[in-house]
Design a protein that fits this description.
Layout: H1 6-17, H2 23-30, H3 34-46, E1 65-73, H4 78-86, E2 91-96, E3 103-109, H5 112-125, E4 129-136
Antiparallel strand pairs: 1-3, 1-4, 2-3
Helix pairs in contact: 2-3
GO molecular function: sequence-specific DNA binding
Pfam family, one: HTH_AsnC-type
Protein name: Transcriptional regulator
């Protein structure tokens, strides 16, 4: 596993502020060569330190309902259920957590009816699910993928 040093962190901070920033611009701001920036970014990409993604506003693309769904699985089914959930187009995130639920997922839907259909059709058909707890987002205060202050 590679070690992220202060130059890498500085590059990441600049990309975090503007992912379309050019290597030349980054190099000037950090007083290093463009080749250094390019090689550092390529190395971090190959080591999967970060990835370039497009972060969309779900509401602006027709996904009006965000749900956080806690799932309790039958003993021995956690991984099987998680893998099946990974295949669902509505699901953005699946994770194993300690606490009340074995799995927690984040999913987006066009409307409440689509969410109800997902629960009653998709989730109910998955073997190994014991209990489902659905929470709908009512208001959002923060949504970021920025981890470096």
């Amino acid at each position: 596993m590679m070690k992220v040093d202060t130059l890498d962190t500085s590059i990441l901070k600049l990309l975090q502020m503007n992912g379309k920033r050019s290597y030349t611009d980054i190099a000037k701001l950090l007083d290093v060569s463009e080749g250094t920036v390019r090689s550092r970014i390529n190395r971090m990409l190959s080591e999967q330190v970060f990835e370039f993604i497009i972060h969309m506003d779900p509401n602006k693309i027709g996904l009006q309902v965000q749900a956080i769904i806690g799932i309790t699985t039958k003993l021995g089914y956690q991984e099987v259920v998680a893998k099946k959930l990974n295949e669902c187009k509505e699901v953005r995130f699946v994770g194993v957590f300690s606490g009340k639920h074995d799995l927690i997922l984040q999913a987006y839907f066009t409307n409440n009816e689509a969410l109800v259909d997902f629960v009653n059709s998709e989730l109910s058909s998955l073997e190994g699910i014991d209990h489902v707890d659905v929470s709908i987002e009512l208001k959002q205060y923060k949504d970021t993928f920025s981890y470096i202050p």
